[in-house]
Amino acid sequence: MAQAALTAEKASQGNNVLDPVTIEIMWTRVVSIVDEAARVIARTAFSTLSNDANDFACVLTDVRGQSLAQNTSGIPSFIATLPATVRHMLAEFPIGEMQPGDVFITNDPWMGTGHLPDVCLVKPIFHKGGVVAFAATTSHVPDIGGVVRSIAPREIYEEGLRIPPTLFVRNGEGDPMLTKLIRANVRTPDQTLGDIWAQVAALEVMDNRMLTLVRDYDVDSLDGFADEIFTRSEKAMRDAIRRVPKGEFTYLMHTDGLEEHFELHVKLTIRDDEILVDYAGTSPQQPCAINCPLTYTYAMTAYAIRSALLPELPNNEGMFRPIKISVPEKSLLNPIFPVAVGARAATGHYVPALVFGALFQALPERVIAAPGSPQWCVTLTGHQHGERYACVLFFAGGLGARASLDGVSCLSWPSNISMIPVEVAERVAPVLFKHKRLLPGSGGKGRYRGGLGQEALIELYAEGGASVFFMTERTKIPAPGLAGGEPGALGELLINGQPVDSRAPHYVKQGTQLLIRTPGGGGYGEAQARSHEAIEKDRRAGYI
Amino acid sequence: MNAIADEAIYSFGIDIGGTFTDVILHRGSDGQSISTKVLTTHLDPREGAIIGVRQLLEQWPIPPRQVGRVVHATTLFTNALIERKGVPTALVTTAGFADSLEIGTERKFDLYDINIEKPAPLVPRELRFEVEERLNARGEVVTALSQETLAAVVARLVEQRIESVAVVFLHSYLNPVHERLAAEYIRKHAPGVHVTTSYDVAPEIREYERTSTTTACAFVKPLAEGYLRGLQNNLRELNIGAPMFLMLSNGGLTHLEEVLKNPIQMLESGPAAGALSSAFFGKLDGYPDLLGFDMGGTTAKLCLVEQGAPMLAYAFEAGRTKRFMEGSGLPIKISTVELIEIGAGGGSIARANSLGLLNVGPDSAGSEPGPVCYGRGGDQPTVTDANLQLGYLNPDFFAGGSMQIDAPLAGHAIGRLADQLGLSLVKAASGIHILVSEAMASAARVHIAEHGRDPRHYSLLLTGGGGPVHGYCVGRKLGVKRLICPPSPGVASAWGLLVAPVKIDRVRTLQTTVQDGDLQAVEQSFLELEQEARGVVQESAVQHQKTFVKRLAEGRYKGQGFSLIVPVPDAALGNEQGRQALIEAFENEYRRKFSRAPSNLKIELVAIRLSVHTEDLIEEGLQFPSRSGALAAVKQVRKAWFEETGGYVDTTVYNRDLLGSGDTFNGPALVEDAGSTLVVGPNATCSVTAHGSIIIELH
């Protein structure tokens, strides 16, 4: 008998219940399928965000658009967003009209991941004439048109090309009209389309591997398997929540804001086996791009709760069922169309620290004091020797201290973006780094010290000068500590020694020096309680 | 000269691993060999090695001068890095960048762990010093090397009694001038301090990875020098005057002096020997494309072999701190046999997780207390306990009969787990076996797919204690058609030491476009690297031995973050023909890996890599005698469980030592030798080759 793969016992015949071994084996396979697809994107993507920063995700869902697995390295921004995208597609395109080989596309912020550069693709997986699952991917493309990395836009129309849910590939061919339209609207047509096709390759990998799986296990539907995963994961999350002290816990965080500070409010209600996270009282949406759509707010909320309660379990639909959020419409954390949302992370990255602030009151050992994030980012563009250059530099602040550990210095959190090596940055842009080092004293004092931020001094030598755009936060309000820990140091941004408005674009001359000081993380516990050994060690290393 | 003598008759291979030291003695005239396994002596690993050598010299009393060479591999340096047990080491960097080593990539290797820590730098902040100097991204001097700041640093090195120092300056991969000057100055003014420059260790762009590699090298260098020279002296005391060669991570050999310049090249020497050995046994029987699967007590390793050579990677991580997670170790930029390591082995513990599902590993019962069946206090069932329960392992012939084990105890432990999960005993035991095999197959699938290959075109070659036990299940899952089990699979990896060619790798970072760049300059760089590498190879090689040069180009489509490495076509790069051939090489590799048409963007070269190597030193295997047929090797019949039969069936057990070449038999079957048991399910036919390997064809 010629049979390539294993002769598994029939996994899900009729109403047979799957056993704990078969479920685990199939689950291992499904997770390895999304991880394999992730490698395809990481290796072919043109965007440095995709390949250095893992700013992409791969997900498999069941036919109802419920997530079976997300790639292990997928960053928190994408928790639960792709399954929602699949459901939007299902609402737009009836499943009965889908054909094998179809790929659907959208980058609508409210249906996708919260901003336009993340292009999302969805592919139905057909088996025996019907859809058994969906493969979905999203990836931050190098350019989507509109204003470059700035919070200036007031409405989504200024931020680039918006692609509503659309059929992109049928019978193996990309839609020529849509392709033409995309090419005409972005600065890097080859790279942007290259990234979209890298995603198509990843979708095909998931399609092929899932078909092998359903054949190996001789199942016509994945519903039984999916329900087992969801039910068990949901139960695990509910069990974890049940162990948290009941009650209502509130926390307020002020953030830099614009002319005035913003207020982010949270009320965590833990009752029996559910968590309700309510953001009532949060500042209203703004006429600039720092609004954070609901999908991103949910992802960041779920990230914090999963990290605190169930860090080991692979992401799937079931584990997030007991986590409900409520966000007032037209607020910073639930803005409505057509406001601008391009820099959603500048607000959204505060959310996990906000949730931790409330959760601390119930589970002091399972949270992190506020970090020196949102992620800092400096974009330089201009011309040198007649060629256009664009360089995006990332700088992490310090992580907050933990209940029994100092914060980690210079660590991207909640996002997960690599720094661009100095040697690489100096190759792609006319800059020379004078230094890039830890910033002593920037970690918030406490029994456990906050992680240090960093200081970088960059000199620009482009003859024609450059346009510089910044994404900075915590330059006015520092990262607060927990349990009596002190806040981390403020971030600072100086051009030629002078503090500047980091929200505005700057046009600078040759020889200009940019000084970047990222914020430190908050401390944990009273500073007097810090051990002498720890202080001595800090002194020896020059951390304080 | 250190050259291997032509008249070399005997060769020694010494492989010091974490638990065991394997020593093998090979006779060139007839291909016979003997080997021994002794416990690694952690306090002074040379001791165990010498015990092994003595044992073999007693078994084969030969004049020591007839030993033509000794080849050595060791995990000693990896352990020194993991345990942070090196000498007091300092780092000297460009002013402003002493923290690069600590800042690292700024990324988390685990997204959800609130107690995450970065891997601790090998050099603490107070021992990282800065000097004034600077090159730009074109390798031009922007700020001259300041003698004063350097002098101040050297004073600190002396004051702090530093034994080893790493020197890493920005952009030195393009121009080593300042690193060389600084090294010279330090050697002169702080005599006795070992100096390591980044240009000599890893001349590649990206300061964090280069600093990490150079620092790791400096950290182990004095240790390596003392240890390796000491071992050579120990051998001399036994009147073995033959030169000692060292196995490198790239699967090649070189002489002692070359290794002492850059001992970090030896980090993966043991696994590299294992990979070479897999390649060797595959080639002997005409199977040059294979996946090596080595499974031990706590981990398993996979290695892809193509056309008889293990695939190489140009970076890896040493000492991953968290469950083999990418990013949790120290980045090391050297060429190394590409291995996928999976945190599961015979000692991995099975349990019910919080979801009520069966989980295996990643924690292991290790050798103490070990699996439940060892009867040393372990009470959580392991993979080995499950394999015993399934009838795969022989309770009366455990570790070749050298170990008393308690099978009922193991059965009870699995029974408790089965009750917890609501499963039958046999379902729990088979579940453990299958789940571990699935983890191996999943890792293999992702790895093979990353290279754009199809697992069905490969044979699976089984080594280690556990490879032959799980190979059948893993092979079925992968869809391979053939398994290969070499003779003595438990000690097969030491063979890699005997067959390894002399091989030297070099790399140079550059930046030019293939379509319109100056490829003449690239050609020139290749020639320079070749001359340098040839020089080192000739110091080690047998005279008149044929050498081969392999040129690789690393590049990417402009704007892409990830690069491809392709073999450079034979034509010289300087002319138009060479240029076209190189473009085609990139396009073909791109198509193969990503199964879509390459972009019409320009291709940017980022580095060139060159390797000079000799032929394999042994190309002939032992001719395995034919004996009196498989029937004569039948030891017993016992019940073993197979998925295809849906339960336990009578299974013939063969004594591997009594099987001869040409023997054939069908599955289900078990083949026992002192180091391992080969498990063959019902849908397979087996035959013993002329070289003693068992080929299992899966149907």
From TrEMBL, chain A:
Pfam families: Hydantoinase_B. InterPro entries: Hydantoinase_B, Oxoprolinase-like. Residues 519-544 are annotated as: Disordered. Residues 19-526 form the Hydantoinase B/oxoprolinase domain. Residues 529-544 have a biased composition (Basic and acidic residues). This is Hydantoinase B/oxoprolinase family protein. It comes from Pseudomonas typographi. The lineage of its organism: Bacteria, Pseudomonadati, Pseudomonadota, Gammaproteobacteria, Pseudomonadales.
UniProtKB/TrEMBL annotation, chain B:
Residues 12-189 form the Hydantoinase/oxoprolinase N-terminal domain. Pfam families: Hydant_A_C (PF19278), Hydant_A_N (PF05378), Hydantoinase_A (PF01968). It comes from the Bacteria. InterPro entries: ACX-like_C (IPR049517), ATPase_NBD (IPR043129), Hydant_A_N (IPR008040), Hydantoinase_A (IPR002821), Oxoprolinase-like (IPR045079). Residues 520-690 form the Acetophenone carboxylase-like C-terminal domain. Residues 210-505 form the Hydantoinase A/oxoprolinase domain. PANTHER family: 5-OXOPROLINASE RELATED, HYPOTHETICAL 5-OXOPROLINASE (EUROFUNG)-RELATED. This is Hydantoinase/oxoprolinase family protein.
